[in-house]
Design brief:
single chain, 489 residues, 36% helix, 2 domains, Rossmann fold, alpha/beta, Glycosyltransferase family 4 protein, four-stranded antiparallel beta sheet
Length: 489
């Protein structure tokens, strides 16, 4: 079984085979070795052109798991979707599958790539009526089935199709490095073996990942040193959610498996600061400019009533009940409330429109009516809601810390970002200035829309993604932009 599954020959303590096959096996060995946050060894596979040699140590477990998956897959393989087909051979064009919803970003980016001639779809395995549905805008394909047997059959059949159709698979979600829930990480050591992703790598299919939050691959202590945000976060005291060792263990697994890590402008800390496969500029945070346009027609149920001179400040927190407890609030909501109350006491006709748990597709109707939008005041970078606000042409306030770790270049797109930076200590003064100057708000709204179109429109993201894809298929890192000072990629 070893030779057929590994697609390599074992000779004593060595294994000889195709470079792509041995590279996948080596990655599997590194994942199950569970070396915490330690970097993956770079020279465990010795390449001689398209052929490679590696030590056989620890390979048996990986090969056995791949063999078991092959047996399961063969039982359900759809006729015409043979797993031995070359990636993308049927379409003969650029191709990518986005698996597991990343808010709505994958859905709109896939559509934009199709407009460029790609075979690109977004797929989800979640229940479309589940608790996260309000954050999504749908997907091109939903594989969920309430019957466990039928669900597994659908996943297996689709996976067999993926092997012969797509040149890249890009996923989202901590611990979700698989098409199959049974291969999701159940332990926070993150050493579960994603045999389906290893099999894709054996077949030369590229793997990408989009981070899901500040602690994705980054130690809590690193964020604390960088911006101090953890001191405001409820999860600082909950090691089952955020702790240095598990955060870094997941980062190690992602970097072991993936060709591309999309950090979306996050600070280059820990695993998000690894130059070999990180892309730092906006790439997957894709919005549809028509959906988020400044001249939206407001449905009656979302129309805000206001007096003639009243100003509205918008602020929102998803899952507010779990993210704000015991005086801790990562977004700085209490400071915003205090600033609004102070301004009202001074005679400023302003009120706060606080929103939580409104479906993502609908909340834009509230956002677009705001005079000023406040995102977060502690972390140091902006997220999805600030993107939406800028695309809607709203003047946006958010704490922006543009500095990076020592020796790391600052991000060019952040230097041109029109967001007005504020902290919990300065939010009162910043709000007072913006609310007193209608022309300044109008100009900020205009440049915010322009910035969002340039960096976050689905078509702009698709153009950048295409360039990254081409580099990856040529064996190059995702970007040629220098990452660290004095260093070229």
């Amino acid at each position: 079984m070893f030779d057929g599954i590994a697609r390599a020959v074992k000779i004593g303590p060595l294994v000889i085979g195709r470079a792509s096959d041995l590279d996948a096996l080596d990655r599997g060995v590194q994942i199950i070795s569970g070396r915490g946050g330690a970097p993956r060894p770079r020279h465990s596979v010795f390449k001689l052109g398209s052929i490679a040699i590696m030590r056989a140590l620890d390979l048996e477990k990986v090969v056995r798991a791949l063999g078991e998956f092959e047996l399961e897959l063969s039982r359900f393989r759809t006729t015409g979707h043979g797993a031995s087909a070359a990636p993308g051979s049927g379409a003969g064009r650029r191709s990518v599958l986005f698996i597991h919803n990343c808010y709505y970003n994958f859905f709109y980016l896939a559509a934009a790539l199709r407009r460029r001639g790609w075979d690109a779809i977004s797929a989800s395995i979640e229940n479309p009526n589940g608790p996260n549905a309000r954050f999504y805008h749908g997907e091109d394909l939903n594989l969920f089935d309430p019957d466990p047997e039928l669900f597994q059959r659908r996943l297996l059949n689709f996976f067999a199709e993926v092997e012969g159709r797509f040149g890249m698979v890009h996923f989202h979600g901590v611990g979700c490095m698989s098409f199959f829930p049974k291969y999701f990480d159940q332990q926070r050591s993150y050493d579960g073996l994603p045999v389906d992703f290893l099999r894709l790598r054996q077949r030369g299919i590229k793997i990408g990942y989009t981070v899901s939050g500040c602690n994705d691959g980054v130690a809590q202590s690193s964020i604390t040193r960088w911006s101090g945000a953890c001191n405001k976060c409820v999860w600082q005291k909950h090691p089952e959610v955020c702790l240095d060792a598990p955060n870094l263990a997941w980062g190690r697994k992602v970097h072991t498996m993936c060709d591309l890590l999309d950090t979306g402008g996050s600070p280059a800390l820990d695993w998000k600061g690894m130059v070999d496969n990180v892309y730092r500029d906006p790439l997957l945070m894709a919005l549809d400019p028509e959906l988020w346009r400044p001249d939206l027609e407001i449905p009656n149920e979302y129309r805000l009533e206001r007096s003639a001179d009243e100003l509205i400040v918008y602020h929102a927190v998803g899952n507010y009940e779990t993210r704000s407890r015991n005086g801790r609030n990562i977004k700085g909501t209490p400071a915003i409330l205090t600033a609004i109350d102070r301004l009202r006491s001074e005679g400023v006709p302003v009120r706060l429109e606080f929103v939580t748990n409104v479906p993502s597709q609908d909340v834009r109707f509230i956002q677009v009516q705001a005079d000023v939008f406040v995102d977060q005041l502690n972390y140091g970078r902006y997220g999805a809601q600030a993107c939406e606000a800028m695309m809607l042409g709203r003047p946006t306030i958010c704490f922006l810390k543009k500095d990076e770790a020592p020796g790391v270049n600052r991000l060019g797109f952040l230097e041109e970002c029109p967001i007005v930076s504020a902290t919990e200590e300065t939010i009162y003064a910043v709000l007072k200035d913006l609310l007193s100057d209608a022309e300044k708000r109008r100009e900020l709204g205009k440049v915010s829309r322009e910035f969002a179109l340039k960096w976050h429109s689905a078509d702009a993201c698709a153009e950048r993604f295409e360039l990254v894809y081409e580099r990856l298929t040529r064996g190059l890192p995702p970007t040629e932009i220098s990452f660290r000072r004095g260093q070229l990629n």
